[in-house]
Design a protein that fits this description.
alpha/beta; eight-stranded parallel beta sheet; 9 helices; 310 residues; 10 strands; two-stranded antiparallel sheet
Amino acid sequence: MLVFTHPACLEHDPGSDHPESPERLQAVIAALREAFPAQLEWRDAPPAKLGELARVHARELIDDVLQVQTAPLRRLDLDTFTSPGSATAALHAAGAGVAAVDAVMLEENQRRAFCAVRPPGHHATVDTAMGFCLFNNIAVAAAYARDQYGLERIAIVDFDVHHGNGTQAIFETEPKMAYYSTHQSGLFPYSGNMRERGVGNVCNILLPPGSDGFRFRNVWADDLLPQIDAFRPQLLFISAGFDAHMHDPQADLMLEAEDFRWLGKELAGIADRHASGRVVSMLEGGYDLQALRECSVAHVQALMAQPARR
């Protein structure tokens, strides 16, 4: 299995007291290297090209994020900041997904890829950076896969505790792209109502505060996984946020690492049935470092557990 990352992703510094810290990515990388010393192939994530970003983002947003910055911090919204290293970090974070798509589509022996990158992406809309996110990494990668490989059915699964409002907004009128999300009710960005259906390609399920793994698994097993299976995706993307863990300080769900492992195996099975095993997963949220370590290992292990044959 492939892991895409880049040292530049550590140079995005939104402030010493900000929860989306470089230590998050350091924790993920260290945990994966320790857990899988020989099973993973590590690759440097290239920077995204402007044309790849422009598939999903307005030029004004691209120019704003990429502007040269000398001040230690620049505030984009209430909780989204950039530093002098943020532009390069954002380019490599978005470029990781594009490179991962090429790898799983073109390389005979590669079917799964995990992008250990930051800043995260799923809140960024066409024209707005928000919610710790600068570019929408997974949307950039999914749009690239659609256009470069002519795919007709691409599924994006998002189990971050916060709704991926940006990803939904970018693709909600495109029937080739299906978006499936569970997220905690009453949290930022206060979107993702179950009535939001797009053109029939969006499915949101809200989980009340305090929901545990039993409820989480039942929701996926009874509703979302059958829908994804019926969609028969040719490529499966995962917005892998681990802030629904019981120890995460940003939310109030009660999941454990084993719940993420379970869902990863289920999604890998769907990819095996319909997509020649092709999965591209991208790190989103997760702010308790120990929980982030455990969940990242569980998630990657789940994706490694069911190798497909082309």
